[in-house]
Amino acid sequence: QGRWGLRPDSVNVASIDAESGRTVLFGLPRNMTDFPFAEGSVMAEQFPDGFDCTDDCYLNSVNTWAQDHPELFPGEERAGLVATRSAVEGITGLDIDYWAMVDMKGFTSLVDALGGVRLNVRDRIPVGGLGSDVTGYIEPGVRTLDGHDTLWFARAREGSDDYSRMARQKCVMGAMLSQVTREYVLAAQAL
pTM, whole model, 2 decimals? Predict the structure, then answer.
């Protein structure tokens, strides 16, 4: 509420082979620059030589740039997501058929609804930072984290770089996929 410029903290793609069901999950660096957009998209028309706006021209700022230019996306409620999708398609060469956007509160609630996520925490991860004080740490070891700590595990920046964060985010997604069974989902839907 009241925050200017929503930017994705993480951009991940799941590429699924329709015949075998095999899935590859990969992340795109949020600070990627000079990337192309899908051919024929509004963003490719605006940036034919790659995303080279005047300030903070990173992958995670495409959403905000498009939201600031709604006249380029007439009738589109989610211009930022349309633009981000065209960036992901331009970078990967894949057609993105479906997307989901989960805000931090929704992510925390999802993890709590699942009863937490069991993770192997390899390094001491700070809770807090990002312009405020570190208020604690998630200690190393195999442990089940609640939504709050899982969010900090996935997005802690203090003492790590974007690639470490991306690795932890994939770790969380992989753990959630392996720990959530069909039976659990069906039982949760019945409640």
Answer: 0.79
